[in-house]
Structures are given as C-alpha cells and as structure tokens.
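Bumping my old thread because nobody answered last time. Still need a sequence for this structure:
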C-alpha cells in the first residue's frame, strides 16, 4: 500500500511540475514562431546531440561494468547499459533523483549481484558524479570571475547555493565513507534529539538500519583505499560523461545557424545550470533548469532563446528520459528472465 501511494505521489508531482513548467515557459509566447524556428533548424547538427545523450547514459554503464570487474563480477556490457538506463529513467521522474539507485539495485539483484556490492558501487558512482560537478563549479567560481559577471549576474545566488549544497553533499558522504564511526555517533545523537522533540517515533529498527548503512560505508571506504587507480579512472570517465551532456547545447546552437559564442563558453554555461539544480528536490531539475536557461543564455541565443531552450532541454532531459525509458522496458523484459 505504501509503495502504491509513493508511486501515485511521484506521478502526480511529476505531472504537476511538468504542467507548471510548460505554463511558465510558454505563457504569453507565440508558439507558432517557436515551432517555425525549430522546424527550420538544421537537423544534421541535432543528430550528434542525440548521440551525446546516448553516450552520457552509456558512460555510466562503462563505470558499472568496470567496477564490477574489479570485484570479480563478470557481467555483460549490455546488462550494465540496462542498469544505467534504469537509473537515469527513475532519477528523471523522481524528486532529487531518489528513485534511480534503489531500482538499479533491484535489477542488479536479479542478475545475482549481491546488494552490498551493488550499494558500494552505486555509492562510489554518486560520489564521483557529484565530485566532478563540484570541481567544475569551484573552477568556474575561482577562475571565471569575468565569466560569472558577464553571463551569471542575475542568478549568482542560485549558482552559489547549488555549489554549496553539492560541496556539502560530497563532504558529508566522504565523512560517512572514511569516518563511519564518527558519522554513526553524529547520526545516533541526531536521531535521539529528533525523538526527544517528538519529531520521530522511537524505533529500534531505525537504529538497526543505521548500523547496516554504516557497514556499507565501511565497505565503500575499504574499496576506495584498495582501488585508487580504479577510482581515478572512474573520475575521468565521469568527467567525459558530464562534458558530453553539457556539449549538447552547443550543437543546438549550431543547429539554429547561430555563431559568435565559443564552444567552451556554451559548455560551461550549461554546466552552471547543472551545478545550480543538481541538489534541488525537483525531478530532472524541471522548472528551475528552464528558468535558468532563459536567464543566462540571452546574449548567446538572442531571438532564438526559447527555441534553443526547447531543443536543448528536449535533447538533454526529455531525450535522456525517452531513451532510458525504452531501455528500462527492455530491462524489465530481459533482466533475470530465463532464456
């Protein structure tokens, strides 16, 4: 019953955010002009954009396959691609991308991968995924002062908020991984305070779950310490994966026959959006991503701003959603099924 209620809530929440986003973006706009510009776009430039979205999904599957092999688990690359697709699909449709990893673990278990191993691997994927965002965000904040004031003057508080949340998340997860006992004491005290304030009911099972979580963090720490080269390679793959998705906007820019702004400028502007919205509790950053695009890309896309946003988000988010949805169906039909 709880599971059904959660599914209904997530579905209603997703649809509500989607409707509000569509209304907020297109309210008062001439849809005919937008459609005309999109129809006249050079589709040859959009095809590489679609390929980059597929590469983005494929990149995580390479990481999963690579780390599984370091554990001595030999899975087919196609199975790892399906795990990756499942993760991206459920991350796209759930608040704060909270549904992706539980579903990945579910399908990995169908392939006889133990839950502790799957959890450790996905924990490392999450840490490196956010670590790369933090490196990019800090690099822009420290080295790109002129860039910030030229393009981001109006949204700097949102950018710094997103960067701060990502730094906090990576730091907190790192503490959990490398100092699990310290983290356990901190979390136990936090639980007791919440119980005393009657914000949580006192339950022994909650403490048991906390102990189990700490075991996962200990396993993750042991893996990180024992496989530094693997982790370094995972970070490099993650960096290429993120850059590929950011680059989609440049191909949209070229598809609209625009010029004058460099590849790296557009790529880092798109990176700013990802850094800003990654930690916000919205499915796929829906709503806020579109708003930020319409704010910071004004000098880049000019009169083609709205069509550019539609195509960029259409490929980068909705294209990812459709591709991963298709392969999630394939995963449901094939993973764990007897031949």
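Sorry it took so long. Here it is:
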């Amino acid at each position: 019953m709880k599971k059904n209620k959660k599914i209904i809530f997530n579905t209603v929440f997703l649809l509500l955010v989607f409707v509000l986003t569509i209304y907020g973006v297109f309210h008062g706009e001439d849809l005919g002009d937008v459609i005309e510009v999109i129809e006249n776009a050079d589709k040859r430039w959009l095809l590489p954009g679609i390929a980059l979205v597929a590469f983005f999904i494929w990149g995580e599957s390479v990481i999963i396959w690579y780390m599984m092999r370091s554990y001595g688990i030999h899975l087919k690359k196609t199975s790892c691609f399906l795990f990756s697709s499942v993760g991206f699909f459920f991350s796209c449709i759930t608040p704060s991308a909270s549904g992706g990893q539980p579903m990945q673990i579910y399908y990995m278990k169908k392939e006889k991968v133990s839950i502790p191993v799957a959890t450790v691997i996905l924990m490392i994927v999450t840490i490196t995924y956010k670590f790369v965002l933090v490196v990019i965000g800090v690099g822009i904040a420290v080295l790109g002062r002129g860039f910030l004031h030229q393009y981001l003057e109006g949204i700097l508080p949102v950018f710094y908020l997103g960067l701060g949340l990502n730094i906090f998340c990576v730091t907190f997860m790192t503490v959990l991984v490398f100092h699990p006992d310290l983290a356990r004491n901190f979390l136990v005290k936090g639980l007791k305070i919440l119980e005393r304030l009657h914000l949580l009911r006192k339950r022994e099972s909650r403490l048991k779950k906390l102990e189990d979580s700490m075991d996962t963090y200990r396993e993750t720490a042991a893996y990180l310490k024992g496989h530094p080269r693997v982790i370094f390679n995972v970070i490099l793959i993650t960096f290429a994966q993120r850059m590929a998705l950011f680059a989609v906007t440049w191909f949209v820019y070229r598809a609209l026959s625009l010029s004058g702004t460099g590849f790296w400028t557009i790529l880092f502007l798109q990176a700013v959006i990802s850094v800003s919205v990654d930690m916000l509790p919205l499915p796929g950053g829906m709503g806020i991503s579109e708003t930020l695009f319409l704010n910071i890309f004004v000098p880049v896309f000019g009169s083609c701003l709205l069509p550019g946003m539609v195509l960029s988000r259409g490929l980068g988010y909705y294209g990812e959603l459709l591709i991963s949805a298709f392969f999630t169906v394939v995963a449901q039909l094939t993973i764990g099924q007897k031949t």
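The CA atoms of residues 59 and 266 lie 22 Å apart. Let me know if any region looks off to you.
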